[in-house]
Amino acid sequence: MARAGKATTIVVFNQKGGIGKTTTSVNLAVCLAALGRRVVLIDLDAQSNATTSVGLSSPAATGAYQLLRGEVDLAHACRPTPYPNLRLVAGSDDLSWADVEIAVKPDPQYVLERALASAPDDVDVLVVDCPPAFGILSVNASVAADVVILPVVPSPMALDGLHKAWWNMQRVRTHFNRDLGAMGILFTMTEDSELMHRLTEAIMASFGERVLPVMIPRDLKVIEAAARDLPLVVLDPDSLAATAYQYLAEVVLTRLMGEDGAAMTDARRDELRERLREWRGPRPDAGQPGALPAVRETPPLEAGPAPEEGWDDDPSQYSGDLEPVGGLGWKIGVAVLLVALGAVLGFAFGRWLYFY
Ligand SMILES: Nc1ncnc2c1ncn2[C@@H]1O[C@H](COP(=O)(O)OP(=O)(O)OP(=O)(O)O)[C@@H](O)[C@H]1O
Ligand SMILES: [Mg+2]
Predict the structure, then answer these.
(1) Sheet with strand 86-89: strands edge to edge
(2) Would you say residue 113 lies in a domain?
(3) Average per-residue pLDDT in the chain?
(4) Which of 12, 26, 216, 298 could connect to 53 by a Cys-Cys bridge, CB 3.0–4.6 Å?
(5) For residue range 58-91, what is the model confidence (pLDDT) as tens digits?
(6) What does pTM read for this prediction?
(7) Could you give the CA distance from residue 49 to residue 314 in angstroms, rounded to a whole number?
(8) What is the tens place of the pLDDT at every residue in 144-164?
(9) Ligand 1, atom nearest to 131 Cα
(10) Is residue 145 part of a domain?
(11) Closest-lying ligand to the alpha carbon of 17?
(12) Which residues have any ligand 1 atom within 6 Å of their CB?
């Protein structure tokens, strides 16, 4: 449960990759902001997908990496986003190094928690998007967490991974974070198929009430949103997955954060959707009012040095320069044989001297 007088830290974690952590972090953060909470989204992943998903670019001169290194405090690590109430602590490539750099600090598991302790008073919720590994960054996030959301795609391999992720969180709770309150499993990318129903039932049988009462359906709009660097709930608040994320925000506030009075009426749900539609409206990076930013272009692959003309005409021309595969091997073999032969002959000669 949230500690009094302190922003609530919601961590979205699963060591499995590509299961909707970033999509969940971003859309949950935007919905909570649209519901009037003052939110900071923290991108702890070197891939920086949460950063681009809210339309910002990486690297940032001051972002999650600098926050973890203690070079800036939280207030200075935050950047405004195009969405009111939502600020971002950006991810960057440098985060790949943070693993190594933090591990050698004293009490390395508490680095993020210490950094978040300086959260300004005008922050209600911190949403942390974790990288796909239970490394030092995810450990730091879970040590700082009040609430953990574990997204999972119902699949045969997911159940095993989910148990591991769940027990990793439990171990963090036991050893480092007694304040870790609620943990909830969130089904993502669900489909209406017989197999998927069986898989979700198997997970529910295993985890019971720890499974949140909302499923995020597989929805092509999610991919379009990523290509446009827009949160899905802003691109199309009426799409299936966006509607589910709006409901997730309600579930998180009421069930995981225990906020009294956060349950929504139909009128408040309509209000939330209307606000998200407004946010999609005139944007500084959109050409004209109401226009959407274009789909992000993929940069061309940088060409390496061109191979020399005719390089593959006659592969045998290289044989003179290269040690043939196994070349050293047969030389060692012959040497061993010669040594063995010498030993046998020496032994025979010794015996001959002894008897005659
Ligand atoms: N509900 C959904 N429907 C369709 N596609 C989805 C949905 N949720 C996520 N995706 C897509 O699946 C891919 C992985 O999603 P996402 O980046 O959120 O996962 P992740 O767990 O953060 O990945 P990583 O472990 O690499 O950080 C992305 O291409 C995303 O657009
Ligand atoms: Mg991600």
Answers:
(1) 78-80, 86-89, 39-43, 125-129, 8-12, 147-152, 182-190, 211-217
(2) yes
(3) 87
(4) 26
(5) 766 899 999 999 999 999 999 999 999 999 999 9
(6) 0.82
(7) 45
(8) 999 999 999 998 888 888 999
(9) 27
(10) yes
(11) 1
(12) 17-23, 45, 47, 49, 132, 188-189, 216, 218-219, 222-223, 226, 241
